[in-house]
Amino acid sequence: LLSAISIERCVSILCPLWYRCRRPQRLSALVCALLWALSIAVIAAVTSLCLLHEHEHCRLALISMYVLNFLIFAPPMVISNVILFIKVLCGSKRRQPKRLYIVIFLTVLFFLIFGVPLSVWNFLQQFDYTVMPSQVVFLFACINSSINPFIYFLVGSWRRRCSLVSLQVAFQRVFEE
Question: Where does the sequence pass through the membrane (predicted)?
């Protein structure tokens, strides 16, 4: 879903007129549904092969899943965020990026820093190759799965001097945009 959100946001910034006037209304829902269906199909195949104790087929299915993740899901997310980062840096200094864009950018950035190492580590484990200890990788994965509320809170209360706002107000400010 981060890939779909990143691409959608990139298109809305790069082609705003097309995005508002010509983009099919249900395109986002369709893309997300297709991504979910692909993910469910891959997970179902991997799970069934691994539960049947087909060691070699399980290993190939896991490798295929990691390759699919790196070649289909990660590149569009990275490319669209780099494009938007450059656009924001080169854009008008008067117009500050909206909070929602900052939240999505930070979410993807922290996913790449803390979430991707687990996938890389799992992929390399299939070839009996270890780059870093499993404790570090699992710590990164735990940070990745718990950092989003902090991002929402910090961005939601951003530019509010000495204001201690509740988490609910922070979420509301972020998602109002």
Answer: 27-46, 66-88, 100-124, 136-155
Residues 22 and 67 in one domain: no
Mean pLDDT of 49-70: 83
Nearest to 81 by CA among 17, 10, 168, 24: 10
DSSP tag of 98? P
- Structure token pair of residue 156: 């939601």
Of the three residues 36, 52, 68, the one that is the final residue of a domain is 52
Task: Answer yes or no: do 48 and 77 share one domain.
Answer: no
Highest mean pLDDT among 24-28, 71-75, 92-96: 24-28
Q: What's the mean per-residue pLDDT of the chain?
A: 78
Question: Radius of gyration over alpha carbons of the chain, in Å?
Answer: 19
Identify whether residues 59 and 126 lie together within a single domain.
yes
Burial label, 89 (beta-carbon count in 10 A; 0-12, 13-18, 19+): exposed
pLDDT score, position 162? 42
Backbone angles phi, psi at 15, to 5 degrees: -130, 65
Q: Which domain, by its residues, includes 7?
A: 1-52
Find tokens 């972020």 and name the residue.
174
Question: Do 116 and 77 belong to one domain?
Answer: yes
